[in-house]
Automatic annotation (TrEMBL):
Keywords: Repeat, TPR repeat. It comes from Patella caerulea (Rayed Mediterranean limpet). One of its GO terms (biological process) is tyrosine metabolic process. It comes from the Eukaryota. The keyword Cell wall biogenesis/degradation does not apply. This is Tetratricopeptide repeat protein 36.
Length: 191
């Protein structure tokens, strides 16, 4: 007869297991205040949010065709329809970024983070986009913090950026790459 057992592990144990199964990702042990972050659960969308989502979809299609001004117009309408909807700010920020209006993009990304309470998919996307803009502006310290927040929310790209920002990891990767190259070219044996 099989029995079931409830097993709880600490956040540290969870981080160690993650490191074992994903050795190339950074060791991100969650801090006490972020370990107990509630799961992001969306309420059923209001009519305004449904209309904003439709405007966003149309805006994304326009952006994909290169009509950034048209997309921005639709994203502005989406924000006006549902000003508490973080996704609209994320999409508008992307359009601003594509037009080179990085300050406006940063404002929208910060607003998306605020509206999402820093959790869920909208926050994950906003933290990643804001990190890239901060890195572009030379603000590496704040960019790294945003990448860490996005990584904690599950963004794989952000995790890779954290690894790349670590000088020891970069040095180890370079050395490993050199060894692999020597093995492939026969300059070094595998023994």
């Amino acid at each position: 007869m099989a029995t079931s057992m409830k097993c709880e592990i600490t956040s540290h144990d969870n981080a160690v297991l993650s490191q074992i199964f994903n050795p190339n990702l950074p060791f991100l042990e969650c801090e006490e205040e972020t370990c107990n972050t509630p799961v992001f659960i969306e309420a059923p969308p209001s009519q305004a949010v449904l209309e904003a989502k439709e405007l966003e979809l149309q805006g994304v299609k326009l952006a994909e065709t290169g009509d950034i001004d048209g997309a921005l117009n639709l994203f502005n309408q989406a924000v006006a329809k549902a000003p508490e909807w973080p996704s609209a700010y994320n999409n508008r920020a992307q359009a601003y970024r594509m037009k080179g209006q990085n300050e406006e993009a940063l404002l929208d990304l910060s607003k998306a983070i605020q509206l999402s309470n820093g959790i869920g998919k909208p926050a994950k996307q906003a933290f990643t986009q804001r990190a890239l803009l901060r890195k572009l502006a030379g603000n590496d310290e704040d960019a790294l913090e945003d990448f860490k927040r996005a990584a904690q929310l599950g963004n794989e790209f952000a995790k890779q950026q954290i690894i790349a920002a670590n000088p020891y990891a970069a040095m180890c990767n370079a050395m490993l790459g050199e060894v692999i190259h020597k093995i492939r070219t026969g300059e070094q044996s595998t023994n």
